[in-house]
Design brief:
The structure is a single chain. By secondary structure, the chain is of the alpha/beta class. It folds into 2 domains: 234 residues, 3-Layer(aba) Sandwich (Aspartate Aminotransferase, domain 2), CATH 3.40.640; 129 residues, Aspartate Aminotransferase, domain 1, CATH 3.90.1150.10. The chain is 38% helix and 14% strand. α3 packs across α6. The chain is globular and about 75 Å long. The relative contact order is 0.17.
Length: 383
């Protein structure tokens, strides 16, 4: 099968990635926690304003670390949306915990903060919120609920590095946060992520968990004369070549973000008339929330129209995938989790959402995407 001429995502070298990789090789340390890992972490700390950050080999790893730090154990419950990637729930299930799914908001597709408090039980340990499409959840409400009930607030900010909530960076409001540097994200190193820590009391234990449960970091700082196994942990570090590539991307963060936001704005402007005429729905950006241009979606009238739209775009060589199958309806979701209340909005929107290509090097190809979208709706209107 031939590849689409315009894929959903196309990673790009944007700056000094290869130069930094050569330098990392010259430094003769390819394992984790070297020169470029430190540079990336410093950059994240300054950008987000978190107390500390630890680079990981994936956002999945960062979420798993966050759940360990929150001491989630067998039978503990963690409230989260069902409309998210499996890693959000898996991090809880791996510790013996129970994901408790609540519905999402119709406008932002983020967790409906008005439903969270009613889902709290004596077994609730944390709230995990997901910033869908780089648009922040209602973090002030969620943090207030977490504080009132003595719960952890964990931000799954996989899609949201650089997004803001009333002037505060995504990842800076929860006790713990996770970001992604997967190939499909704005800033990438192929596979990668980071744990963001907003409580200094958690930093030392986070370092231990990340280093296979050993106090190796204390050893290298000269705080102990030998390191040993002291806690739970796993091998969550990325290699230095990944970190070197990532630093090359972080150097160009502002440019990458600007280009992606421009593409999203271009789509919105060109297609807004379709929303006004009720033919589709475009992303919603709440007041006070500045997104990072991560993705652009459309909500089709029904599942059948979405299928026809994807087929139409594919014929034009354009890849337009839908997104998650809601976790509560998946086989493992039915086995390991439970829902609180109906999931009407989640089920409805998951069946109608489709995404348009957004990537740094899309250039004039975005015009072809727009033309194909308009052609579909013209043809659809003639039926």
């Amino acid at each position: 099968m031939s590849s689409p001429s315009i894929p959903f995502n196309r990673p790009a070298i944007v700056g000094n990635e290869l130069k930094y990789i050569e330098d990392a090789l010259a430094r003769k340390q390819l394992s984790g926690d070297g020169h470029y890992t430190a540079l990336c972490q410093d950059w994240i700390n300054e950008k987000v304003g978190c107390q500390a950050s630890l680079l990981t080999h994936s956002c999945t790893a960062a979420l798993e670390m966050a759940v360990i730090l929150a001491d989630v154990g067998p039978g503990d419950e963690v409230i989260m949306p069902s409309y998210t990637f499996v890693s959000t729930a898996n991090a809880v299930v791996l510790r013996g915990g129970i994901p408790v799914f609540v519905d999402i908001r119709e406008d932002t597709l983020n967790i409906d903060e008005t439903l969270v408090e009613a889902a709290i039980t004596p077994r609730t340990k944390a709230i995990m919120t997901v910033h869908y499409a780089g648009v922040c959840s209602e973090l002030s409400t969620l943090r207030r609920i977490a504080d009132d009930y003595g719960l952890w607030l964990i931000e799954d900010a996989a899609q949201a590095l650089g997004s803001t909530y009333h002037g505060q960076q995504a990842g800076s409001i929860g006790h713990l946060s996770a970001v992604s540097f997967h190939e499909t994200k704005n800033i990438t190193c192929g596979e990668g992520g980071a744990l963001l820590i907003n409580d200094t009391n958690l930093v030392e234990r986070a370092e231990i968990i990340r280093e296979k449960g050993t106090n190796r970091k204390r050893f290298f700082r000269g705080q102990v004369d030998k390191y040993s196994w002291v806690d739970l942990g796993s091998s969550f570090l990325p290699g230095e070549l990944n970190a070197a590539f990532l630093m090359g991307q972080l150097d160009k963060f502002d440019e990458i973000t600007r280009v992606r936001k421009d593409v999203c704005a271009q789509y919105f402007s060109a297609l807004e008339h379709l929303q006004e005429s009720g033919k589709t729905r475009l992303p919603f950006y709440p007041d006070g929330c500045d997104h990072n241009g991560h993705l652009f979606y459309m909500i089709m009238p029904d599942r059948s129209r979405r299928t026809h739209f994807i087929e139409h775009m594919k014929k034009d060589g354009i890849m337009t995938p839908f997104h998650y199958v809601p976790l509560h309806s998946a086989p493992a979701g039915r086995r390991f989790s439970r829902t609180h209340g109906p999931m009407r909005v989640t089920v409805d929107l998951a069946e109608r959402l489709v995404r348009l290509p957004v990537f740094f090097a899309i250039g004039e190809e975005s015009e072809k995407v727009i033309a194909s979208v308009k052609a579909y709706f013209q043809k659809d209107s003639g039926k």
